Amino acid sequence: MRVIDQEELRQYRLQREAYEELQVLASCHIASEDYVQAERCYRRSAVLWPDRPEPYVGLGVTAMQTGRHDEALRAFQTARTMAPRCAEAWAGTAMIHQERRQYPQAFEMYLRCLEIDGDNLIALLGLFQTSCQMGTFSKITHYLEEYLETHPDDQSVLFCLASLYARDGRAIQARQTLLTVLAYDPNKREARDLLKNVEEQLRNDCSKEVA
Predict the structure, then answer these.
(1) Per-residue pLDDT band at 3 (split at 50, 70, 90)
(2) Is residue 206 situated within a structural domain?
(3) Mind giving me the DSSP string for the chain?
(4) CATH number for 196
């Protein structure tokens, strides 16, 4: 077994530090929507550490943001090949399929992402959107409920879940969830409008039971 000497260890540390600095810098460029500079940082970090998936996820994001969907798919695929449990790569692939209105493919990719990382909000909301497009809601309700067990004050997810409850005729659960949303934001118009519809449904249900 070969012993790693101090010079090799020093070089490894320097390479890792340079890689991490480039990743941070690329994230800053993404935040400021400077995708050209972000892409340069990701390409340099991929050279420094070619077996890591993160630079390729980043390259996928920059390509997606600049409309190069085929290139984005290739980058996300490379990341998934390197790290099959890279949730961000699955989510990125799903977003491309969703953008192309390939909803069944997007749905499956979002599901795969959530199986790896149940807290991935991008995948969760993407799954909700594709479910709405496809008219299939059985799986997404479960994932929303599971997410809210650890993030009970996430208003966006609460409202999505309330919408699904209302759609499924689960008016009592919808009302309770909407009241929670409005407790955080009493002026949320969409929640107030949906609550009005849900309460009307509950009154109609009560009238039918009495009759």
Answers:
(1) low
(2) yes
(3) -PPPPHHHHHHHHHHHHHHHHHHHHHHHHHHTT-HHHHHHHHHHHHHHSTT-SHHHHHHHHHHHHTT-HHHHHHHHHHHHHH-TT-HHHHHHHHHHHHHTT-HHHHHHHHHHHHHH-TT-HHHHHHHHHHHHHHT--HHHHHHHHHHHHH-TT-HHHHHHHHHHHHHTT-HHHHHHHHHHHHHH-TT-HHHHHHHHHHHHHHHHHHHHHH-
(4) 1.25.40.10
